[in-house]
Amino acid sequence: MSLKEQSVATDPTEPTSLPLEEVLRHADANMNESLDRLFQLLRIPSVSCDPLYASQCQEAASWLANELTGIGFDACVRQTTGHPVVVGHQGQTSGPHILFYGHYDVQPVEPLDEWAADPFDPKLRAQPDGETHIVSRGASDDKGQLLTFIEACRAWKAVTGHLPLGVSMFFEGEEESGSPSMEQFLDEAGQELRADVMLLCDTYLWNDAVPAVTVMFRGLLEEEIEVTCANRDLHSGAYGNAARNPIQVLAELIASLRGESGEVAIEGFYEDVREPDEKLRSELKKLNFDADNFLKNVGLSKSAGDQAYSVLEQVWTRPSCEINGIAGGYYGDGLKTIIPSKAVAKISFRLVAGQDPGKIQSKFHEHIRARMPADCAVKFTGLGGSKASVIPSKSEYLRRARAALKDEWNCESVLIGSGGSIPIVSVMQSRFGLDSLPIGFARSDNRHHSPNEKYDVSSFHKGIRSWIRVLAELSHCESNRRKV
Amino acid sequence: MSLKEQSVATDPTEPTSLPLEEVLRHADANMNESLDRLFQLLRIPSVSCDPLYASQCQEAASWLANELTGIGFDACVRQTTGHPVVVGHQGQTSGPHILFYGHYDVQPVEPLDEWAADPFDPKLRAQPDGETHIVSRGASDDKGQLLTFIEACRAWKAVTGHLPLGVSMFFEGEEESGSPSMEQFLDEAGQELRADVMLLCDTYLWNDAVPAVTVMFRGLLEEEIEVTCANRDLHSGAYGNAARNPIQVLAELIASLRGESGEVAIEGFYEDVREPDEKLRSELKKLNFDADNFLKNVGLSKSAGDQAYSVLEQVWTRPSCEINGIAGGYYGDGLKTIIPSKAVAKISFRLVAGQDPGKIQSKFHEHIRARMPADCAVKFTGLGGSKASVIPSKSEYLRRARAALKDEWNCESVLIGSGGSIPIVSVMQSRFGLDSLPIGFARSDNRHHSPNEKYDVSSFHKGIRSWIRVLAELSHCESNRRKV
Fold it and tell me: Would you call B252 and A251 a contact, using CB atoms and an 8 Å cutoff?
C-alpha cells in the first residue's frame, strides 16, 4: 500500500489527529528526491534583471506551476507586463487559508570568475564542520527557501492525501528587479490572493540553532544616474583640465551623498523616519547582536554608517544610501587616455518605516541637480521602489507559528529585523491588510547576491520540517478573513 | 621610359637641381595608390593596450617593414619585450641624416555602438563642405599621418631613384599604451637611431589653412587604483550603512583630487612646474586662440580646470589630472543590490616641463593613502610615465622646415604646444640630445581616441606634399651629429 493510499484513512475534519510525525518521517525519507527537484529548479538561469534571460524566467515559472499541479494545486503561469507569476490554490471547506509567497528569479552571477564552479550547475559540497552546502545562484535566495514550503506541502499530501489547511501559492519572477509588474498584476488578480496570513521564506535564521520571524523590513528606492559632459569622448591630452570630466563630476556627487559621520547627507532624508516602538526595541536589545563578528565575517572591523547608531540599528532601523555600481570611460586592460562623454552609477536607498519612496526620490534628484556644474546634463532613471514594512508582533498566527518552530528547533524563536527589502510584504499589507509571517532558514554566510551562493542541506531539511509543523499548527487558527 | 629610369639622370650631389615640382606632381598623380596603401594598414586592428590584438600589432609591423623595403630601405621588424618596432635605413654618403618616428598602434574602439561603421573597415565619406573624410580607427592617429612621410619618400624614390638626404624610420607599436618596451629597446638598439633631427607627424595643424610645428608636449603618468573593502560582494540590504562601500570610498578619493577652482589638489603637485619662457609665451599669445570655439566644438561652454589660467594654458602649459575610466559593482541592465568588494579607476596625469613622473606618482600615492578610511586596502598599478618636453625654438632645421611649409601652404607656420604626450620626443632628447620637429596635418575635429575617428583626404595629400618639400629643404642643412 502506497503512502498516499494509506493516508486516505486520516480524517481531515479532526486536526488533532493529524499524523504529524508520519509526515515528518516521510519528508526525512524523501530528502534526496526533494534535493533532485531543487537542483532542477536551480539549473534554470532565471536572472530577472537581464532581458537576455526572459525565456529562462518563463521556464522557471512553468516548472513551478507543473510541480504545484503535481501535488494537487489548481495552478498555472500568469503573464504580466514583465516576467510571469505562478498562482496555485488548494482550498479547504473550512478553517484558515494561508498564502505562501516566494520568488523564482535570481540575481545576476557577475563577477563570474569569482565562482568556484558554474553558478547554474548546482553541486553538493561537504564542509569540514559536517554541513553540506548546495552551491548555486538561487540555492538560498529564494529557490531553496521556497521549495522548503512546496516540499512540506508535498509531504502532507503524500501521507494524508490533503493539506491541513487551505493554501494558495504565489511566486513572482521580478523580486530581484524591484517587482515592476507587481502592482498591475495585483490590480487585476489580487483579490484571489486574499488569505488570513501570508507566509514567506525569503529570510534568515537568527543563528544556526535559533529560528526567527522577521517583523521589520527596509523599503527600497533604486535609481540610475547618468552624467554627460562633452558631446563625445575626448583625448585627455588635448582637453585635459579644460573639459569637464563626467567621472570627476559623478565622483563629487557621490561623495556629497554621505557626511563626515557616515550619515546620508541629503537634506531632509531622515525627517519622516519612524523609530521602532519600545516593545520591539527591547526585543532587539535582548538579541545581544555581535556587531564585531558580523563585520569580521566579511573582513571588516568598523561600521561605515552613521556613528550615532549601533550596527544593528544601521542595518535594520536606519535608512541607507548605497552605490551598487559605477561605470565610465575605459576600464579594460591598460589605459585609454580619454575624457569620456558620460559616466553612470546605480544607487539604491534602503528606507525605513515612515519614509515615502517618491518623496526620497525627489529629495535625491534635488540634491543632485543643485550640485551639477556647468556643461553637465544629468539623467535619472527610476528602477523601482517600495515602502518599508513592520509586522504586528502580536497575533494568533505569529504565536502558533513560533510554537511550531519551538517544537522543531527545541528553543524559542526570536523576532528580528531585516535590512533587506521584500516589497510584497508592504504591498500586501497596504492593499489588503494582509500581514505576513516571514520565516526563513537561510544562514548569514549564504552569500545572497554574491559569488558562490550556498544553502545548507540542513537548512533545506529543517526548513521542510518546520513548515510541516507550522502548517499543522496554523490549521487551528481562527479564520477572520475572506477565503479564496 | 618609367619614372624611375628617367630619374637616374638627376645628380644627387647638386641639391639645387632636385626635381621638386616633378616629385610633387608624381605624388598628386598617385594619390589613389597612396590611399589604397593607407586602407591596407587601417584594416589591421593593431590595438596595443589589449593583449587580444598582439598578432594584429605584429601584422601591422610586418606590413610597414615590407613597404619600407619596397622603396629601398634596409628595413625589418624588431622584437621587443612588448609589441615589435620597425626600423629602416636609407643612408647618403654625405649631408644630413634625419630620423622619422611614427606609431602603428591605435586606441581601442569602445564604445563600438557609437561608430557609424566598422572602425577597421575604412571608408571615404564625402562631406557637405567639399572635404572627403577617411573614417577609421587610426585614420589620423597615427597611421594616416605616418604614411604621409612614407609616401613622400616613395615619390622621391619613384622620380629620382633616391632620397634627397639620409633617412631612418622608426615605428613603434606601444605609443597608445605608454611605450613600456621603449626604454629597453633603446638601451639595446638606440645608437643606430642617432640622427641630426627627428621628424614626426603625430600632431595637428593650427587650423585648416595654417601648418604648425609643435614645440611643447605634456608628459604623462598613468595609474590604476583599486580600492577593496569587504572580502566579497555583500547584499546591500543586509549590510547597507554598516559595510564600507568601495565605490563610495573611490568617489571620495577622486573628489579630493580637484579643488574648488579646478586646480589639482594634491599637495606639492605644482611645485616643480617650469613656466614657458618669454619668447614662447609671446608666440602663444599671438595665436589668438579661440577658447570659446574650442570648447563649443565638443558641446562645452566653460573650462573645468584651474580658473587662474587661460584655456590654452590649461591644456598646454599646466599639468592635469584626469579620470579616464572607473568601474565597480554591477553596471549591466537593471540594478543589482550589492555593496561590491572592490572598485577600480584609471587615472592619468598630464605633466609639464619641470615635473618628474616618479615624484608626482609618489605624491599621488601619499595623497590617496592619507585619505583611506578604516578597513580599506588600496592597490596601485603603474601603467607608465614620461616627462614633458620642450623643443628649442631656434635651429636651422626648424627654420628650413618652416620655409618648406610656407611654400606648400602659402602662409607662415606657427609654433604651438600640445596637451598630449609623445613620450619618444622627451626620451630621444634626454638620451641622445636629439631634438624633434613635430609637424602634423591632423585637424582638431579628427576625433583621436574617439568613435568615428577621421582624417581628411586633403590632410593626407598636403601632408605628403609638405614632407616632399621638407625633405628637399632639410637636405641643405649642416649635419652636426654622428650619422648612421
Answer: yes
> Under an 8 A CB cutoff, do A220 and B237 touch?
yes
Strand partners, B326: A328, B345
Cα B100–Cα A334–Cα B300 angle in degrees, nearest 5: 80
Question: How many domains are there within chain A?
Answer: 2
With an 8 Å Cβ cutoff, are A336 and B383 in contact? no
Pair (A118, A226) in one structural domain:
no
The answer to whether B245 contacts A325, with C-beta atoms less than 8 Å apart, is no
- Taking the mean position of all CA atoms in its chain, how far away is CA B79? 21
Tell me, what's the ipTM? 0.78
**Inside any domain, residue B295:** no
Cβ atoms A78, A84 nearer than 8 A: yes
Residue in the block written with cell 593626407: B460
What CATH number has the domain bearing residue B49?
A: 3.40.630.10
Q: Round to whole Å and give the CA distance between A431 and A128.
A: 47
pTM of the model: 0.78
Please answer yes or no on whether B336 and A449 come within 8 Å at the CB atom.
yes
* Selected residue of B337, B372, B426, B443 to mutate for chain A interface (largest A Cβ count, 10 A): B337
Residues B226 and B206 in one domain: no
What are the chain A neighbours of B305 within 8 Å (beta carbons)? 241-242
Tally A–B CB contacts below 8 A: 384
* Residue of chain B minimizing CA distance to A291: B242
H or E stretch covering A70: helix A54-70
Mutation pick from B214, B326, B371 vs chain A, by most beta carbons of A within 10 Å, is B326
In three-state secondary structure terms, B314 is helix
- For residues B209 and B256, membership in a common domain is answered with no
pLDDT tens across the length of chain B (484 residues): 333 434 444 444 444 445 999 999 999 999 999 999 999 999 999 999 999 999 999 999 999 999 999 999 999 999 999 999 999 999 888 889 999 999 999 999 998 999 999 999 999 999 999 999 999 999 999 999 999 999 999 999 999 999 999 999 999 999 998 788 999 999 999 999 999 999 999 999 999 999 999 999 999 999 999 999 999 999 999 899 999 999 999 999 999 999 999 999 999 999 999 988 887 788 888 899 999 999 999 999 999 999 999 999 999 999 999 999 999 999 998 888 899 999 999 999 999 999 999 999 999 999 999 999 999 999 999 988 888 988 887 789 999 999 999 999 999 999 999 998 787 898 898 899 999 999 999 998 999 888 999 999 999 999 999 999 999 999 999 887 544 4
Q: What is the CATH number of the domain that holds A266?
A: 3.30.70.360
Residue A159 dihedral angles phi and psi, to the nearest 5°: -85, -45
Examine residue B287 and state whether it is found in any structural domain, yes or no. Answer: no
Do B212 and B226 have their domain in common?
A: no
Contact flag B247-A323 (C-beta cutoff 8 Å): yes
Which domain range does residue B107 map to?
A: 3-217+389-474
Query: Are A61 and A206 in the same domain?
Result: yes
Query: Domain boundary residue among B360, B386, B412?
Result: B386
